[in-house]
Write a structure and sequence with these properties.
EC number: 4.1.1.20
Strand content: 15-25%
Radius of gyration: 24 Å
InterPro entries: Ala_racemase/Decarboxylase_C (IPR009006), DAP_deCOOHase_LysA (IPR002986), De-COase2_C (IPR022643), De-COase2_CS (IPR022657), De-COase2_N (IPR022644), Orn/DAP/Arg_de-COase (IPR000183), PLP-binding_barrel (IPR029066)
Helix content: 25-40%
CATH class of one domain: Alpha Beta
Number of strands: 23
Largest sheet: 9 strands, mixed
Number of helices: 11
Oligomer: single chain
GO biological process, one term: lysine biosynthetic process via diaminopimelate
Keywords: Decarboxylase, Lyase, Pyridoxal phosphate
Shape: globular
CATH topology of one domain: TIM Barrel
Structural class: alpha/beta
Family: Belongs to the Orn/Lys/Arg decarboxylase class-II family.
CATH architecture of one domain: Alpha-Beta Barrel
Length: 447
């Protein structure tokens, strides 16, 4: 799979998709054709790029870990199905994601259920239908799962999510090493093992460690995994038997912004050699199924979000492009999904890619200054009807956004696979049925 470095431009990322007669193409299909067929705004995903990312990572971690796709990154069952066909398991965080995972073809034993706030009805739903493992994150959750298992007369496989010490930190958004709603603090590991072991309806299979997200440094990632493996040995020693599973978490990042460097899988593979040796030399974890749970790394670079230019205007010397898509469909690109300093995703014009470019601000159609998708984009002199594409958009796009804001139509989602085009989510309508209080369609007095 092609890798990019910190010197790569938006155009370099666009080139990874390919072109048709000079215009941006996905799987050999011009984006303009897809926009004409399905309308804009529009999400488009390339199945071959998803497969390429999975295979490259699978080769890198072979002999150490299997891969479970974190479905929250993009829960469309058609996307998850591509990865299930490749051999991935799925990691979920809700009952709805369990339903999506099953629709994608995942077998119950190949699904892990994590998350700090699982509702009792969600837990009962997945336990009744089968689940590979539930990752426990609070004492209340231990009691709930134990009670459900006892009521159903089944032994529920569980793992303990551990909030690691500060020494294992790294990544753009840190998930541990400080007071956290996620998991049990590392220093209390033995005590919580005793609590779980006291419940006959629970089978403590392993531990789960998730330290941070958007990690681009292979050494940081390998160091976190090493810490997780050491914790696994400690847990097994206290438990008095080998572990069945070790979940080292996800967090593998992709480059979004100028100056960021892609995760070096060659370097990660070099570091993994030592981790393989460590596991082989530890009888209590030697036979455990070690997994990682990447999300954006697998699907992020394979997707783009396309919008049509509605207006090009100059305001006090600054050029603005107003497009028909915005933060309500792609909150992350607007910088309003956890960014402290708002930086631009890679943005390109879909047509006439050789034209001279100049700075502009790309905004959406919403009545708020927050609806800004690029602040320093270098784009041609685009006119109404031309297309803009936001790259690196296959993860944390549509379902991570306030879709209902201002009641604009939701975009379609399309999967391109070797020249085949599949509509995997239909475009929403702004003509939703409305029932007014006190009289249906007739105007009601509002005082």
């Amino acid at each position: 799979m092609p890798q990019i470095d910190g010197r790569s431009s938006s155009q370099d990322l666009a080139d990874l998709f390919g072109s048709h007669e000079g215009d941006l193409a996905i799987g050999g299909i011009p984006l303009t054709n897809l926009a004409e067929q399905f309308g804009t705004p529009l999400y488009v995903y390339d199945a071959e790029r998803i497969r390429g990312a999975y295979r490259h990572l699978s080769e890198t971690v072979a002999g150490l870990a299997g891969i479970y796709y974190s479905i929250k990154a993009n829960p469309n069952p058609a996307i998850a199905h591509v990865l299930v066909e490749e051999g991935a398991g799925l990691e979920i965080a809700s009952a709805a994601e369990y339903i999506a995972a099953r629709a994608a073809g995942a077998q119950p034993k190949r699904i892990l259920f994590a998350g700090p706030g699982k509702r009792p009805d969600e837990l009962a739903y997945v336990i009744e239908r089968g689940i590979g493992e539930i990752h426990l994150e609070s004492h209340e959750e231990i009691a709930r799962v134990a009670a459900i298992g006892q009521g159903l007369g089944v032994e529920v496989p569980v793992a303990l999510r551990i909030n690691p010490s500060a020494t294992a930190q790294g990544g753009a958004m840190r998930m541990g090493g400080k007071p956290s709603p996620f998991g049990f603090d590392e220093e209390g590991l033995e005590a919580v093992i005793d609590v779980v072991s006291a419940h006959p309806s629970l089978r403590l299979a392993g531990i789960h460690l998730f330290v941070g997200t958007q990690i681009l440094d292979a050494d940081v990632l390998a160091g976190q995994w090493a810490h997780g493996l050491r914790l696994a040995v400690r847990a097994a020693q206290h438990l008095g038997r080998p572990l069945d599973t070790i979940d080292l978490g996800g967090g593998l990042g992709i480059p979004y912004f100028q100056g960021e460097t892609a995760l070096d899988l060659q370097r990660l593979g070099e570091r993994i050699q030592d981790l393989r040796t460590f596991v082989r030399n530890q009888p209590l974890i030697r036979d455990a199924a070690v997994v990682i749970e990447p999300g954006r790394f697998l699907v992020g670079p394979a997707g783009l979000y396309a919008g049509q230019v509605l207006a090009s205007k100059i305001s006090r010397g600054t050029r603005f492009l107003v497009i028909d898509g915005g933060m309500h469909h792609h909150l992350a690109a607007s910088g309003n999904l956890g960014q402290v300093i708002k930086r631009d995703y890679p943005v390109v014009a879909a047509t006439s890619r050789g034209r001279e470019t100049s700075p502009c601000i790309v905004v959406g159609p919403l009545c708020t200054p927050l609806d800004t998708l690029a602040r320093q984009a270098m784009l041609p002199d685009l006119r109404a009807g031309e297309l803009v594409a936001i790259l690196q958009s296959g993860a944390y796009g549509l379902t991570a956004s306030p879709i209902g804001f201002l009641s604009h139509p939701s975009p379609a989602e399309v999967l391109v696979d070797g020249g085949r085009i599949s509509l995997i989510r239909a475009r929403g309508s702004f003509e939703a049925p409305i029932t007014l209080p006190g009289g249906g369609g007739q105007g009601s007095h509002v005082g």
